[in-house]
User: Fold these one by one.
Assistant:
Number 1:
Amino acid sequence: MATAAAHQTASSQTYGAEGAVDDTTAYQSVFDAAVAADERIEPRDWMPDAYRATLVRQIAQHAHSEIIGMQPEANWITRAPSLRRKAILMAKVQDEAGHGLYLYSAAETLGTGRDELLDKLHSGRQKYSSIFNYPTLTWADVGAIGWLVDGAAITNQVPLCRCSYGPYARAMVRICKEESFHQRQGYELLLALSNGTPEQHAMAQDAVDRWWWPSLMMFGPPDDESAHSAQSMAWKIKRHSNDELRQRFVDICVPQAESLGLTLPDPDLKWNEERGQHDFGPIDWTEFREVLKGNGPCNEQRITQRRKAHDEGAWVREAATAHAAKHTGEKGAARA
Amino acid sequence: MSTSETTAVAAPAPVPTAAALALGDDALVLSHRLGEWAGHAPVLEEEVALANIALDLLGQARVLLSMAGDEDELAYLREERAFRNLQLVEQPNGDFAHTIVRQLYFSTYQHLLYTELAAGDGPFAPLAAKAVKEVAYHRDHAEQWTLRLGDGTEESHARMLRAGEALWRFTGEMFRPVDGVDVDGERMEAAWLAAVGEVLRRATLPLPEGPRAGAWAAGAGRQGLHTEPFGRMLAEMQHLHRSHPGASW
């Protein structure tokens, strides 16, 4: 492809360095053309600093969400009510750690290191998804997370498989496959509860009641308040607006809730014939902002556990590094 | 099926329930302990590795317990005195060194055991043939970490010394005969001592010197005599299942 060849050329010129300032405009137009032609930007290509910074922020936040997101579910591994469910849950939490690893690798192609990103997570300078600041209070929450939280994540992430940055897009293809599987398992868990004893049914309904609104908040603030949206869409990092994706998610969930035999906790939820979509009630954006600010039910607990795991593991990572240094200086298998 | 009945040369060997329970409980209990690490591991790669090992063990437990009865009834509705697992596998995770040493001691044993069972024609041969591949990986993982931690820093070395000694007293039990498990315990014990000794030597760690057998420490778990932390582990594991008698999940 002509533009692909051109932006490769532009990137090799940056290594020539001289006259780089004058060339920026040329590189920018090659970059713009590649994005316009739906080509993938690769790690060695020239890219605007702001594009790089936006991607680092987004991919890191995504990676952190996978890692923090292990906690609410791991909370139930030791209490899972059957061996089959326990195996499914363990496999899921393991997948999440794997997703975190893919995503940190993708972020590293942009010139940052995993250590630095983890440091920013631990010090609160980078965020993770607000949803993981809610507690898992019953076994049914594991199902609600699978169905609703993973469902919302997939709705958000499937378009990212076509994101303009190649390494991120490719990571999303792998992640989305596994996420869809988790989502079906969560749905199936809730279905078993919904069709179970009256106590199990009530447990499922209660979980859906508590997770529905926080799941809708996962799509981010409304379009007119979303600071980065327009630029991200122009760069084709983002393909749809927050409100579009949120609407799509609601329309997907309504019939699924019906077949589960569960209700969604929104009295304003109804089919709008004219729009061909569901209307739904107002989201409590005050709660959303509070959770983002660190005042959600589990913010403190989640970050404290993450820091504790990291700090208590320091001697293990140091040992691995020391061992590697003693033995032929090969690279350590574990990193700080 | 009628065809298999008429063509079968010999009736299948009856499943030795006690043996299936003993081996199944080992896998179930150690899997549970490893599951407690989720979200707490020292490095992300170990989140994946420990969960992976836990899952393999849970898979083995499900096959073995199903040979003895209903897997969930056996896991969730037996009380402490009816469990037949080794005391070694119920020991709390402690620090990463304790977890690794427990894993080294147990995986080495399990690898020797399953290699032998896989080679035989007993009722555990099919399970062992599949599981031995998983267990070889568990053993390698434990050995690699033993080397890194034993021959790492002063602190990691000291922690491995403590863990190696603390868990040593639970190792004699592994070689007591289990009714229905057709292996030569003495020969396996010699092979185990040689293998573990060699890994510890390479890790610059001495072979612990304390007793490996005693009135209480050896053979006790197999008789349903457990250590105190085990009851709490079961309370957590069984609570939800027991709260909803007869429910399906």
Note: Chain A has 14 helices and two strands.
Number 2:
Amino acid sequence: MLAELIELQEFEASEDRIWCVAWNPTGTLLASCGSDKVIKLWGREGERNWVCKSTITDGHTRSIRSVAWSFCGNRLASAGFDAKVSVWERDGQDFVLQTTLEGHENEVKDVAFSRSGLYLATCGRDKSVWIWEYNEEENDFACAAVLTTHTQDVKHLKWHPQKDVLASCSYDDTIKMFVEDNDDWTCASSLESHKSTVWSCDFDVTGKRLVSCSDDKTVKIWHAYEKNNREGIRSPSGVYPVWKCVCTISGYHTQAIYDVKWCSLTGLIATASGDNAIRIFREEERQQMDAPPSFSLVASNTHAHLQDVNRISFNPKEAGLLASCSDDGTIKLWRIEQRPS
Amino acid sequence: MDFSSGPQNLNPTIYERTEERTIQASDYDNDVTDEIDRREIFDLIRTINDPEHPLTLEELNVVDLDGITIDNQANTVQVQFRPTIPHCSMATLIGLSIRAKLLYTLPTRYKVGVNIIEGAHIQENQINKQLNDKERVTAALENNHLRAVVNRCIVPQNS
């Protein structure tokens, strides 16, 4: 192995399943949530030790599926099976409820702030993706679009790292890209190749590539071909980039893959799986410019947790620091150490 | 799911129950390693009640010993079940009850898969996908109405 996955710390965060962990943009706080309907914020105490700094208990009446930070770090949003989205605002050391967004018919599965800070997106079991626009004067969010392109349960959302482009993953086995076009939100492309539920996706640092993971036990790398690309790949719309699957990583996972992250600092890809494992992949250097990309497993821990690993998050400031959470109720912090090849 | 209409399969075939397990002397010996086997998994699910009939899943031949696979090294359990008729609208509920019973009784290390026997239902792929999506199963079991229906199925009746 060309790298090592070293366990730094374990928190017994809950008696129940932890669904999600997310670092704030400065990498100083880790938010977690789960079936116990509690949001916890974990921060550093001293050099190495991380502890629970605060707890938010009054947000939801059912499981909290995910939490997300705004790019400024002053807002936190949570998505619940109670059909609600809560937005929390920083007030000194604490977070207080700013607003509750209602509209989804049933379970909300994910929430995400756009990089620009203008939008918040939510999705859920009712097959819809909602885009909410932030109004600074009223300090509130108003619904800008309800997108019903997916034909099934929408599992996960990811905003492009630079543009107001949204990717959504679904139980209908596809990923869709949404863009704003003359004040209207529209589906710009549909990424079809997975054979089962797409649980998660992440852009690389440039936003020109996307990694996705699925119930079909594979990870796929997608490449965006812009209009008039030199490869001569035509976009069906003639306007929006076309996304093509350029690499499939298969044969490593024995159960569904619930999360995948593409580290913006190191370029490493990490996966969280129903087989209790965390795996780290690194892109091979290409011998020729036009060769297809290939990725190899550089580190793994097949007993990372005692049960399914639900979500992972790369610290955005400290290269190689990874957080994970599991059905076993624990959160773990890991350090990835790369060795020269 | 629609529970209001009457039973779909009005006259199901009823099968014999399996004999109870005979207790061995070694069953009480704490020094003997005794891993969970197929028969134990079967005993957990065979007494689940059918949602429509006052009969167990075993008596309706919805589950049998052959439909169960367990691998203690890999910590996996696979249960295959056979709806009584190929268009049974209760198939999802039956599968959910099997899943719930195993979720509440088996050690958490097991990865449980619940599937319809190939070719036994017109919507087997859709139902299998739903039954093996843990997020949807969790959400379903958080629903009070559905949980009550599932609990009625998995709590053994006086026989």
Note: The CA atoms of residues 204 and 262 of chain A lie 6 Å apart.
